[in-house]
Amino acid sequence: MAKQPMLKFVDIQRDMPSKRAADERKKDFHEIYAEFAGAKATEQASRCSQCGVPYCQAHCPLSNNIPDWLRLTATGRLAEAYELSQATNTFPEICGRICPQDRLCEGNCVIEQSGHGTVTIGAVEKYITDTAWENGWVKPAAPVTERAESVGIIGAGPGGLAAADMLRRAGIQVTIYDRYDRAGGLLTYGIPGFKLEKDVVMRRNELLAEGGVTFVMNCNVGVDISFEEIREKHDAVIIATGVYKSRDLEIPNSRSGGIVRALDFLTASNRKSFGDAVEEYDNGTLSAEGKRVVVIGGGDTAMDCLRTSIREGAVSVKCLYRRDKANMPGSQREVKNAEEEGVIFEWLSAPKGFTEDGGKVSGVMVQKMRLGAPDASGRQAPEVIEGADYVEEADLVIQALGFEPEDLPKLWGVDGLDVTRWGTVKAEFTTGATALDGVYAVGDIVRGASLVVWAIRDGRDCAQAIIERFAAPAAVAAE
Questions:
Q1: Alpha-carbon distance 377 to 368, whole Å?
Q2: Which of 252, 245, 301, 312 has the alpha carbon at shortest distance from 278?
Q3: How far apart are CA 297 and CA 256, in angstroms?
Q4: Do residues 67 and 5 lie in contact, with contact meaning Cβ atoms separated by under 8 Å?
Q5: Separation of alpha carbons 366 and 445, rounded Å
């Protein structure tokens, strides 16, 4: 009888790829986790219980066929595992690195619920696709037939890139317009290299270009080209701009020098990693070197700012968050990594103003909080503890309070592009169709600030809807 290749979770313990020591990794921007070796990936994949109702798949926004590609990995069929993985996910090696698996697939693993420790799904996913790249299995789009229809995509983030890939594989002509000089959106300029090294993103951009996607970079829609001009050039348009407008604090001295936005700080750091000249970094405005840094916020962007500040040589790095550790929105794994690297978390602390010296910030006026009754979302609402205020000294304050959509109808001078009361574009669920004929919207500009994996899902769903729309007239003509 052949030996059972799966269901080994009782005998084999959960094991992650080795993590570089904090004292070593905080000196550079390289990824902190090592690659699985082949034997270790096989071993960890074999822990999957192959349950009848795969909750890991159900809680993945892309509905990745996780149990099957785990089984293929456990039995040494890596090429097939890659093919199955990329069938539902345009960028599996990126999701394997940056998805919050602890809140999605791994957090809902059946053997995790039974106390055996979840399967290390993200690490295996990363291993499969990195192996595919090394072996030349990852190929650019090569459609059997080229089609005459064209689609213009505004925004080269994960949603736009995912849509572009699917459309090109169907033979549709694709042009992407983006305001930045490199494609990738937040993958390129928002996420630090210690979570996602930039060559991983750049090789995907190069693959798309090899497959026939045309990139028009340094193109600011509404300035360099109008939205109507893009509509006239293409048979359909996808809006995939993301949300980049930072939320700011409106409290005393919030305009003092040294108070900066998270995305500006992260973009400067990432540009330096490419070797770009960044004046605001070089003159110290957007650099943490030698400074007492305070980051305000508790999401994943705040974690990125905290850990970037450590690597830039800050004297001290502290995080202010108005709730406790259990109620913060960011990944608990990222919090642990930050703590290991020397970040100090001040839980139940909220800013009420800033102190300044000569127009530059010198501290954050902090009010201590306690958790009271649940708010409308069901989370306990923070309440101020009277008389417990103090000043946290700071030379650099980074606001990581989330992002809001820009007013696209006003910026682009577009009539009929409906938006919600939050300013996001109104679009049909699954297809991304907007009120304007032939215009679609995907990702954060529809959902609000969300996960990369959801943007990929939206881009793929929208591309499929457009492919079916273009195929419909041909089917009618054939009849």
A1: 22
A2: 312
A3: 19
A4: no
A5: 33
What is the pLDDT, as a whole number, of residue 460?
98
Contact call for residues 288 and 392 (beta carbons, < 8 A): no
Same domain, 95 and 69: yes
Task: Return the amino acid letter for 307.
Answer: R
Please choose, from the candidates 112, 123, 125, the residue with its C-alpha nearest in 3D space to the C-alpha of residue 49. Answer: 112
For residue range 77-111, list pLDDT tens digits in order.
999 999 999 999 999 999 999 999 988 999 999 88
What is the crossing angle of helices 300-311 and 332-340, to 10°?
20
Domain limit, last residue, from 349, 369, 403: 403
Largest CA distance in the chain: 80
| Total tally of structural domains belonging to the chain | 3
382 closest CA partner among 393, 391, 373: 373
Residue 99: give the domain boundaries. 22-134
Beta bridge partners of 292: 316
**Which helix (H) or strand (E) segment is 270 a member of?**
helix 262-273
Question: Residue 19 is encoded by which pair of tokens?
Answer: 């993590």
- Report whether 442 contacts 455 (CB < 8 A): yes
Task: Give yes or no: residues 171 and 28 share one domain.
Answer: no
Which tens digit of pLDDT belongs to each residue from 202-241?
A: 999 999 999 999 999 999 999 999 999 999 999 999 999 9
State how far the Cα of 120 lies from the Cα of 303, in Å rounded to an integer.
22
Place of tokens 């993985």: 85
**Which mean pLDDT values do the consecutive 10-residue runs of the chain (479 residues) have?**
62 82 95 84 91 93 96 95 97 95 91 86 95 97 96 98 98 98 97 96 98 98 97 98 92 96 97 96 97 96 97 98 90 92 97 96 97 84 94 98 93 95 95 97 96 97 97 61
